[in-house]
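User: Before I run my own analysis I want an independent prediction to cross-check against. Here's the chain; please return only the structure tokens and, at the end, one sentence I can use as a sanity check.
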Amino acid sequence: ADIGAAWGVLAAIRGGPRRAAGDVDPRRIAVLYFEHRGDSARTQHLADGLTASPIHELSSVKALQVISSNGVRPFRNASVRPDSLRRALGIGTIVQGTVSEDGNRLRVAVALVNAATGTETKSTVLERPRAELFALQDTLSKAVAQFLRLAIGEEVQLQETRAATSDVGAWELVQQAGEERKRSDALIASGNPTAANGALARGDSLLAQASARDAKWTTPIVERGWLAWEQRRIVGLAKGPGTEFTDRGLRFAEEALAIRPDTEAIHLRGTMRYWRYILNVDIGSLSGDRLLAAAEADLRAGGAARSNPRRASALGLLSHLLLRKSETAEGKLVALQAWEADEYLTEASAVLWRLYSASLDLEDAAEAQRWCNEGQRRFPNDPLLTECRISMYAIRDLKPDVPALWRLVEQYARLYPENQQEYRRKRAQVFLSMALANAGLRDSARAVVTRARADSATIDQTNDLMYLEVAARNVMGDREEAIKVLRNYLATNPQDRESIARDETWFFRGLRDDPRFVALVRTGR
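Assistant: Structure tokens:
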């Protein structure tokens, strides 16, 4: 493995779930990305595609706990000892393999390895003509299932999840598009958005070619929608670009749904609908609460469908929606389901943040501390999971170390790009003002929260700081000012009136019975 890959593996080991040395369950399985033999880029994407098949099919078996593709991705193309994998991922069994080409034939060597001892317990070599790639996929998954049945002493019944296309060329184009998406991820992480955008464009072109080869196969259409969603990481989440990429994603979702009721297309549509709601952008007849309800229904469907390979992602976004609706208890439970479905989810840090923030809203100090600590351990460089160390002191009865919190405010802000630091600094200061108020330092708290007010046109377009100030003023006992700030917030975010009216957390404690509050959140229905 190269140095970069090795560092990535070490980070994954340090950041993964901790397991006791003797805690080895053979039913907890990692299917490592198959290695490819030869220099052909085509063999690489074939190897990745063949790896995805047993991961997805075995994940449907209730007797097994299969590490997701996100969990094993840090170990792709890296040499790591089985005992290191066992400690990093808490696994008892490893499935590993190699893929090679010999003319028009594909050869897959696959083995089952005991993670505790490093001993290879079962192995076989499968070979098929390239034109019979799908038959090779099926044979591979069945061979792994048979190995596992012998290893764990339980029947392993697979669901049929092979690609719903008979065109091998179309399938290969989708795998190549997946490589471009991975390349885009790496380019975004390295700070090269222009090259990342080029990779997304190449991926979109490959998916369009796949659709042209098999117009009835929904996967390439849906994947084009998800590539449109990736644009948010390049162009940002402001209303202008957000409207453009959600519009594109919606078109692909509807195109796929016109072919068949694809659960991942429903999930894609729900994602785009929800973001349109956040941006306060209508979709034809759907607007406001109707748009939110439609988004919620889609995300619930995507989260309930085990056939959806992005199920954990659907649950993660649904938890965000429920928390925004002030359905805090259910929002936390759904976030927990997302975490249990895939603790290596791409959005895992965001899910941990929601578990923390829901606990904060419920004033559960022990749970808030638990999820903040877990987030800090897993994602020590994630800014939000540093913010939790400040915002936690908004809970009453927790005694803050004020000088340490001031230092942490600056440390937190500097974790962000320079153009975001001022907003983040002010956000942290609002939470700090609550800590000061809870410590009895009301005058200092008022001075800090006043100084934290922002120019929404430049650093806070959605007025989130204003929303937080309502809570801060309420904590300080400044009811008049809280009502005034809430009035200004709802003038620009009227879609939030209903969720605020339903909010039962400490944010609005004492305000709910105020006639002015009731008048502000009344929707007229």
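Sanity check: Residues 1-22 have pLDDT under 50 and may be disordered.
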